[in-house]
Design brief:
Elements lengths: L1 E7 L2 H12 L4 E8 L2 E8 L4 H12 L1 H10 L1 H24 L4 H12 L4 H8 L8 H15 L12 E6 L6 H16 L4 E5 L5 H14 L3 E3 L3 H10 L5 E5 L9 H12 L3 E8 L4 H10 L7 E5 L8 H10 L3 E5 L8 E3 L2 H18 L7 H6 L7
Parallel strand pairs: 4-7, 4-8, 5-6, 5-7, 8-9, 9-10
Antiparallel strand pairs: 1-3, 2-3, 10-11
Helix pairs in contact: 2-3, 5-6, 7-14, 8-9, 12-13
């Protein structure tokens, strides 16, 4: 038998560590609160016959073993397991506010899809607890189809001035190139203007320069507000002007200044936030708030082909009301981009839910646990 102590910020975090280390066959031996959160002792290759033998001895000689059993490690372990189960039950009841087995199973499913507890609870509380799991999931997807904000007017490629903002590595330059290529195919290169403000990374400038050369469009470089204003004035005859900005962390002190320059002083510029579907909900919410959601006109969701659980980005859109205009699912220019629709987003989320069910998200626990809504097994 192998024992190991796991410390997590909460029960879910500790359980994830246990699964990653020992797999689904781990046995929980004890759990209690510590300063860092919760401590759980788990084991693998545990011999359950030890417990059975101990119980048999206690039953045969209750008077002799009563005192020993009350303080034995195995009795304590059994109590700890019961306590842990109670903690999980209480956590689910508290987060959902419902004792319905179907609701708790659906909560676990949505959490595994990366969805936030806020969005998941809002969706599940409207579900009839008498439905089957599949009917309940279908109902949830229909609710999401109504709730996801999609920008269906004034698409970027129809014309205007747009600045692409967002953290480093989310795919701003590639996304800009894809939209530029779509525009050139419809309206011609003579109607397009490209500007790069990414003066921090030479490679980023070169990348946009290469795209511009392929499209037959010159790329202007702007280092500050004055040069940006000059560049926009020189391109005033263009139907569409796309501006590539430097990637910055949402917590970067330069972000507010950049957003103020783009929105407050240059009113003709619309800001487009680029968000990767691979990021967790918390990181996405930080980006949306850091880049001042009130100043954002729309967003583009990238890297859909790389994401195994898009619930996080769906939750972020629903909770902030930020509308999505384009979806990208690869590196090819301009093939791997499409106009966003609610159907496409919900369809991908449904496929991921089906995959979870297929690989055993519903079946890895015992039938009794699933029926009672107690099974917790997070990726």
């Amino acid at each position: 038998m192998k024992l190991k102590r796991f410390v997590g910020t909460d029960t879910r975090d500790a359980m994830q560590q246990i699964k990653a280390t020992f797999g689904p066959d781990a046995v929980i031996l004890s759990s209690h609160q510590v300063d860092e959160g919760i401590e759980i002792v788990a084991a693998i290759d545990f011999d359950e016959t030890i417990l059975s033998a101990k119980a048999a001895v206690a039953e045969m000689a209750p008077d002799m073993s009563k005192k020993e059993t009350a303080f034995s490690p195995f009795e304590e372990m059994r109590q700890e397991i019961t306590t842990l189960r109670g903690m999980l039950e209480a956590q689910l009841r508290t987060s959902l506010g419902s004792n319905e087995p179907l609701h708790r199973v659906m909560m676990q499913t949505l959490i595994e899809l990366g969805m936030s507890q806020t969005t998941a609870t809002s969706l599940i509380n409207r579900i009839n607890p008498q439905l089957s799991q599949q009917r309940a999931l279908d109902t949830i997807m229909n609710q999401l189809a109504e709730a996801i904000p999609v920008r269906e007017f004034c698409r970027i490629e129809e014309g205007g001035i747009y600045a692409f903002v967002g953290p480093t590595g989310v795919g701003k330059t590639t996304t800009l190139a894809k939209i530029a290529a779509r525009f050139v195919l419809r309206f011609g290169a003579q109607n397009l203007g490209l500007i790069t403000m990414d003066t921090y990374r030479i490679a980023a400038q070169e990348q946009l320069m290469v795209y511009g050369k392929i499209l037959g469009v010159n790329v202007a470089v702007a280092e500050d507000e004055v040069s940006l204003t000059r560049a926009i004035r020189q391109l005033s005859d263009k139907k569409l002007i796309l501006i590539d900005t430097a990637g910055m962390s949402p917590s970067d002190a330069r972000v507010p200044g950049q957003m103020d320059m783009l929105t407050a002083q240059l009113q003709s510029i619309s800001t487009v936030l680029v968000l990767p579907a691979t990021s967790h909900y918390a990181a996405l919410m930080e980006a949306i708030k850091g880049y001042q959601v009130s100043e954002l006109q729309q967003c583009v969701i990238t890297k859909l082909d790389e994401s195994k659980a898009i619930g996080g980005v769906v939750s972020a859109l629903v909770e902030t009301g930020l509308s999505v205009s384009y979806l990208t699912d690869g590196q090819r220019v301009p093939e791997d981009i499409k106009l966003a629709t609610k159907y496409q987003i919900v369809e991908q989320l449904s496929k991921q839910a089906l995959h979870l069910k297929t690989v055993g998200a519903f079946s890895r626990g015992t039938k009794q646990d699933v029926a009672r809504g107690l099974y917790v097994d997070s990726e």
